[in-house]
Amino acid sequence: MAKVKTKTGHVCTDCGAVYPKWQGHCTACGAWSTIKEVRLGPAGRSDAAAGFSGATSAVMLLSEVSCADEPRFTSGSIELDRVLGGGFVPGSVILIGGDPGAGKSTILLQTMCHAAREREVLYVSGEESLQQIAARAKRLGLATDRVKMLAECSVERVLDVAGSERPQVLVIDSIQVMQTESVDSAPGGVSQVRESAATLTRYAKTNGVVLIMVGHVTKDSSLAGPMTLSHMVDTQIMLSSTEDARYRLMRTTKNRFGAVNELGVFAMTEQGLREVRNPSAIFLSRSESIAPGSLISVLWEGTRPLLVEIQSLVVEAQYGTPRRLGIGLDNNRIAMILAVLTKHGGLVVSDQDVFVNVVGGIRVLETSADLAVTLAIASSLRNRALSHELLVFGEVGLSGEIRPVSNGEARLKEGAKHGFTRAIVPKGNVPKRGVEGVEIVGVSDLNEALQAILG
């Protein structure tokens, strides 16, 4: 019998860079002594042996390619379906990450118990025992009679079981503990994670299986492992908790089948994660007393508006150098707004400490909150309280102009639905027919906006 030759390579365990031979220094990431020899698999192995079907690719005209909508099926959760772009797509690969205790395994267990009613599912656990998972399911009151479980860390063994069970949904919890025989390194290493994910992805694409992989995060809350892991998957989801740990925020950072930065909101209860249908309501729990420096703005998260409270506190600097601190906002954006406020608004804050907070743990990723932040700072500086019924949004330019933002009318209607009766918005966002019950004040520059609240 002919001896099968094995192909080897040298891979950096930090960044995943591949080299033809060993060297002490990785030129890609700058690390030393991180390049290890790994076994890449039998030399000359065909794509079919690697997990692909035997069919060869053919050249096609782009106009001849079918562009029919991808068939989807629901996950059983409206919020999760929203984040995914409408539900699960057969053959898609989903990576979900988050801090320990965020609820990744919980939401997946709930989802699999729902999907198992109509489809074959296989939940592979490499971290928890089956007894632990069964105890959690019992505590949450889930129907588990059709959910197939497997405690395994070997990729080859998982694919063998999947080949016989033929699941339509496959969960890997987690990809960092999986290992493949083709790589001689410990589980969790860059090369091991990359090859394990690649092998599982090939299986999912070839067989039309929905593959969901759980990923660990580093101490700075970014996904652990090689960057190629993010490029490999179709959808990447991050699950985080709010400051009071009562709610979980699910956001997409990559999605080939839907909108990016879509936000799903869940409440952590004794029965597991429960979706929040109206997230604006939970972020608007304001005190009855009116205090300076507090305003409501409307963010656009994926495909829907979200009302959030923005608070600002401006006090005289106590230690010489003024502090600028933002929670939920980019500090560089706050510094720019303060410069514009000084230059074009005539409000001097160079000797003041400025603190800005987005209530509820929401992270502002767009510029529509600029005007609300600016007016909240001015309100705190002048100690002028603003009405609870005031809504503000708009982008602030470096020359002091107030620029319109997308979906302005939808933002105003969301505010009207929650009882807001006055809005300060860019002139470009003032609807021609107005919004019933809302007095809309259109402003074109910073001075007009300050005049509208300070008089």
Supply the key terms.
single chain; Rossmann fold; Ribosomal Protein S5, domain 2; 3 domains; 4-stranded mixed beta sheet; globular
What is the second-level CATH architecture of the largest domain?
A: 3-Layer(aba) Sandwich
Write down the CATH class of the largest domain. Answer: Alpha Beta
List the strand order in the largest sheet: 6-5-7-8-4-9-10-11-12
Give Rg in angstroms.
26 Å
Structural class: alpha/beta
Pfam family, one: ChlI
InterPro entries: AAA+_ATPase, DNA_repair_RadA, P-loop_NTPase, RecA_ATP-bd, Ribosomal_Su5_D2-typ_SF, Ribsml_uS5_D2-typ_fold_subgr, Rubredoxin_2
GO molecular function: ATP binding; ATP-dependent DNA damage sensor activity; damaged DNA binding; hydrolase activity; zinc ion binding
Domain RecA family profile: 69-217
Notes on the structure:
The protein has 455 residues and is of the alpha/beta class. The chain folds into three domains: 37 residues; 207 residues, P-loop containing nucleotide triphosphate hydrolases (Rossmann fold), CATH 3.40.50.300; 173 residues, Ribosomal Protein S5, domain 2, CATH 3.30.230.10. It has eleven helices and 21 strands. The chain has a nine-stranded mixed sheet with strand order 6-5-7-8-4-9-10-11-12, sandwiched between helices. A four-stranded mixed sheet has the order 13-14-16-15. A three-stranded antiparallel sheet has the order 2-1-3, with no helix packed on it. Strand 10 and strand 11 form a beta hairpin. Helix 8 packs across helix 9 and helix 9 crosses helix 11. The protein is globular and about 75 Å long. It starts with 5 loop residues before the first strand and ends with a helix.
